[in-house]
Amino acid sequence: MKTIIEPFKIKSVEPIRFTTKEERKNILETAGYNPFLINAEDVLIDLLTDSGTSAMSSGQWAGIMRGDESYAGARSFYAFESAVRNITGDKFIIPTHQGRAAEKIIFSTLGGPGKYFVSNTFFDTTRANIEFSGSEGVDLLVEEGKHPEQRAPFKGNMDVAALDSFIRKTGKENIPFVMITITNNSGGGQPVSMQNIREVKEVCKKYGLPLFLDACRFAENAYFIKQREKGFENKSIIEICREMFSYADGSTMSAKKDALVNIGGWLSLNDEELAMKCRNLLIVTEGFPTYGGLAGRDLEAIALGLEEIVDEHYLQYRIRSVEYLGEKILAAGVPIIEPPGGHAIYIDAKRFLPHISADQYPGQSIVCELYVEGGVRAVEIGSVMFGKYDKNGKLIPSVMELVRLAIPRRVYTQSHIDYVAEVVIEAYKNRNYMKGYEITYEAPMLRHFTAKFKPI
């Protein structure tokens, strides 16, 4: 096979500021050893998130100039609505300023004390919005998804038997809906099979429960289905996407991922009464239903991004470029979630730093080391992000301790990725000298964004 090249040409560039190792040590200390609190200009390669960090195409920038900024009924809204409906098939398309706004609206409308929402794995803001409503989020990931070193084609799947059992035990009246996250972000960017989506839908039909998709990376998930699931090898990406959404009763979406834009999202529904309730809340919190907290130019960019994301040449490059990083660091012995996911490489901090216990946050130790070693900003996805405390104040650790290297779309070249691999490998060589961290400040919810630490 020939080299897989970037399916685009670079038309504009943004300079990167270089720092020394000593400068980075001081910057990290000033930031309370939390990469979220480091100024972006002090970061060399930014892998903190793939959300809103994409490089937009010349077509999208041209679309921004065409954006209709009318308050109500803007032409750009109808372009957006048509593009979303072309993929989801849903009747009611509600724009929001980003994914968590869609989550806030749907969970505020359907949640409340005594309610349970079930998923393969909820991500941080999704779970926070569930808990903010007074409800509880329950993760039912398949067993192979809990073992980073184990290879399987669809480690993001939901445990269907566990779902059926949970519904019978909890009572369907206490579960507003079931949600599948595609791809499974907290589970390592791992895909969900079409068969699993169908089986989850059958359980939902059995108990009369709606099924929703957290669709942030729907196109990447579709590409994995095409590559790995029998019967889909000759189907187009858009056909696979439409089938995925056909099993769902609605979706939440952060367009900052697979719509290739810097801001935006949606809530899509098929229930007219529920859509009316959600639109009423949208008006109070986001804006009129035809702009939903977005400028017309943003709606225009999303509509164009949804056309570009289903291009198979782009998805081949996207998935392969992430896989390339995984292969390079795996070859040097760095433990990761295998196989590599769609949007990120996840370092297994438990195996990387077996001498640091969960209550000393091994993932945080790795993200700090990566920044000091090479100016690479990553994010901990472990007991800092998902850990809780019992009634005695003792940490209940996360199931997995991970560090996510999220690759922005169409931003970095192969040489950037080679540099990241070198930094990760160098940090791995230094692992026996790395220490744990303790929290000196934390917020009551979503603490990882603003927490401060000190080395132990």
- Main β-sheet description: 7 strands, mixed
Share in helix: 25-40%
Number of helices: 15
Cα radius of gyration in angstroms? 21 Å
Distance between the termini: 49 Å
**Numbering strands along the chain, what is their spatial order in the largest sheet?**
2-8-7-6-5-3-4
Provide the CATH superfamily of the largest domain: Type I PLP-dependent aspartate aminotransferase-like (Major domain)
Would you identify the regions where 5 or more consecutive residues have pLDDT less than 50?
none
CATH C-level class of the largest domain is Alpha Beta
Task: Name the average pLDDT.
Answer: 96
Oligomer: single chain
CATH-derived architecture of the largest domain: 3-Layer(aba) Sandwich
> What fold name goes in the CATH topology slot of the largest domain?
Aspartate Aminotransferase, domain 2
- What is the domain tally? 2
- The global form is globular
Q: Work out the number of β strands.
A: 16
Verbal overview:
- The protein has 2 domains: 21-50 and 311-455, Aspartate Aminotransferase, domain 1 (Alpha-Beta Complex), CATH 3.90.1150; 59-308, Aspartate Aminotransferase, domain 2 (3-Layer(aba) Sandwich).
- 39% of the residues lie in helices and 13% in strands.
- It has helices at 21-30, 58-66, 75-88, 99-110, 124-132, 160-170, 194-207, 218-228, 237-246, 272-285, 296-308, 312-331, 349-352, 362-374, 414-429; strands at residues 45-46, 92-96, 116-119, 136-139, 178-181, 211-214, 250-254, 265-269, 344-348, 376-377, 379-381, 388-389, 395-396, 402-406, 437-441, 452-455.
- The strands form 5 sheets. The chain has a 7-stranded mixed beta sheet, with helices on both faces. Strands 9-14-11 form a 3-stranded antiparallel beta sheet. Strands 1-10 form a two-stranded parallel ribbon.
- It is globular, with a radius of gyration of 21 Å.
- The termini are far apart.
